[in-house]
Description:
The protein has one domain (8-20, 30-142). It contains 1 helix and 10 strands; from the N terminus they run αββββββββββ. The protein has one helix at residues 2-6, and strands spanning 11-16, 29-41, 43-48, 55-67, 77-79, 90-92, 98-109, 112-115, 127-138, 141-142. The longest helix has 5 residues, at 2-6.
Amino acid sequence: MLLESLVGPGEAISITAHPRTPEMKMGTLRGVRVANVTGRAENSVRVSGSGECRIRDVTLENIAVTLDRWTRYPGGVFDNRPTQGRYPEIEPHGTPGFHIRAADNVVLKRCRVAWGESPPEYFTHALEPTTYRSCGSQASKVKPRIPSGTPRC
Length: 153
């Protein structure tokens, strides 16, 4: 049972700033750099701040991720655990390569997204920024995978 509570939906990289309890006072999360990571994952590279704490000044450099499916765990969700109250622990959401939310000054340098052989329909965009300021990429290669009928970002 403990293993089940620890195993999430396989985020490649997860940088989050969500309050864990309703009473929690949030500090700041800034000046983060992740570099030289290559891997295969079932879920996004996430930079996810909140209304209580926007994440600032993040550099993702030389990140290469292949999104694929191979486990029995449900996909199409973000794992925000542990949280109580305002934010859902398991959040239904499509699976972009890179997801950036409630973050300022996020830079992607030489980042790549590839898709496995049979990506499910909930695998969405290579890059999905929402509620951000100054998000950019420098010489990143993102191979778009946009299911039919999905609006392009």
